[in-house]
Amino acid sequence: MKVLTLKQPWASLVANGYKVYEFRSWKTNYRGEIYIHAGCGVDKEWLDKVKDYSIDFPKKKILCKVVIEDCIKIDDEFNKMISKLDKNVYKDKYRDGYAFKLGKVTKVNIDKEINGQLGLWSYDEDN
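User: That's the sequence. What structure does it adopt?
Assistant: Structure tokens below.
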């Protein structure tokens, strides 16, 4: 299964349905199921903004399965749309890059510490 590693709080926000767009500088043509992995990195400024959401922020864990439904080139129209969403989850503006539209979130229970990687990477569930 393909995996995307995110810093916290982003990984937990996706796993709990608060965040449906993940932003990257690179485009993907991949559509389908992936795991969301919480890496060891933490964005402390944004973690403070969502501390009252009553969710956990584990590190080095696969948290959920999602479907990459689309990969959207960020433009002015997208920035207008995203500016109307939760300010604790989304910044006011993303200047460039791509937004991966994530859907069909399903939490998983993989109780194993796993080191993340850059980009979309593969995880063998049998190991």
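The radius of gyration is 14 Å.
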